[in-house]
Task: structure prediction
Amino acid sequence: RASSPAEAAMAAKGERTSLLGGSKVTYAGTEAPRSVNSIVEGGSGPAGQRVEGFLNDADDKQPDQVCWGYDQHIISALARLPFLHTAATLAFFVYFGHVWLLISHPALAVGVIGFFVAYGVVRFWMMWVCAFYGISVLNRSDMRDPSYFRNLPRRGVSMQFDSVYHAVMVPAYKEPLDKLRQTLDTIASQSVARNIVVCMAMEERDPKGPEVAEQLQKEYGPRLAGFCYAVHPVVQGEVPGKSSNENWAARCIKRKLVDEMRINPDNVVITTCDADTFFHNNYFAAVSHYFILDGEEERYHKFYLPVTNFMPNVYAVPALCDTRYTVLSVGRISEMANPISTPFPLAIYSVPLRLAHQADYWDPFVIPEDWHMYFRCVFADKGRVEPRRIMLLVGTEAVEGKDYFDTIRETYDQSVRWQWGAIDMGYLIMKVSVGWDVPVVKRAKLLAQAYDHHLFAVTMGMCLILAPFLYGKIPVELWTDVWTGSVAFVMLKTVMIWIWITHISLHWVFLCTADAQLRRGVLRNRMHFYMDGENSQGYRRWISLMLFPVADIFLFLIPTIHAHARMFYSSQFNYVPSAKLGGRPLPPQMPDCGCG
Result:
């Protein structure tokens, strides 16, 4: 928008008008400044308009082309890399390595396998040390009063706590109404609910979407600063799904809040979630606190990440799926608590509107949106973007199908869709190659971390599983007495089997312990967390968690190879949302709050 003469004059004088209880924006004319209450309660004229209803006007900012307009063609070509990497690694390990290394250089074969084993052992212990530390941090954070973050001292910053405005996008496509109500329950129960505008990011292909959004607006609008919905039109070339819906909704939010209502974009934080997201009741207050605390120099270069958890309904799904989602949840806690890692966003995260606008919003041409949006912002912001950990647990449900086997099939399909995120390797390689304004170290770190997650971890797991059978006859020299130097020769297969037995046993013990700590602490009495399944207690729970090696193979390794193979033949993917059942009734003892 072009500035008016009055705006220019005020900017020149350094005059800024209070908005939303302390945020700042330059105004034209002489309208009285607005507080958050004036927006919530309404009023006369544009300054008192309430954010509600259908948004159909979007910001028209278009992304710049990186590679002379051939971006999508290059990304499509590079989408074949994950399968080529997986196939080449396995071919070398299974055939060339087995034949050539085993016969000509057995010591080198042992060295390669030893590297994989050592790397896996380091990752194993780092994961569990960080997981238990993370659970202790979550327990401390969970006991805080709803006014805790509001009352924390914030020295050296001028922005007021109530000046931060949250726009929450809830992408939805043919979702059960009761499931959406559960998500909105946890948003409306926030300690800063009067600073939150919800925008339902609907899809044009869903004919009942507007009807559902208007019903939810009647129910939840009065409890929030505003409630609106945007219907993403089907545009040729765009990929229907969460990312394209977010792109349209974010553009509509910017047009409404900033261009029409003249709210300062520097004070708006956009949060995206799933249709079955159960927020901690202090999450948005925590984001407000850290957003202010990060200061003018840093707050617009941050991604605010909660601890994503997949356990609200794990006791209602088959044990194989339950175990997989529990392992994922514990792994995410470990990743978020690891002081030397740089966690990427996972499904639910918050980003300043200013940064999202700078990155041209979410990419409407992709399926995976969380990592992709992070990479998009990193390169748009010249490498300054960093994650800010919000150590509060936010839940999202496990897949539930129509019956036992349908749930397993749906979980497998969801895993394939998640592993489709490896297509970001092509996007990242392209951006790393041309993003000269991003420091080399930053680019290398992003590439290494994405490679480790999408490619190396998968091939390493498969190679370690196959190693005892392919290289088991190689003799390995072991010291039996470190003082006398006595040695003994054993088969590599024996060594590998004992390593696997030790690893699986410790992993199971640690998993049972972490699961019990979560159930008795952070997850206890959480809104819409279903903790009363028949396999939730005692020996049944321990036995079900013994399935984790099987779950890793059939719900991680095989879906990953499946996704890589599909990407090799075609980079097009038909996005189908995961099956989710409607809301469950709350247990009688469960309080209406978002914390434990």
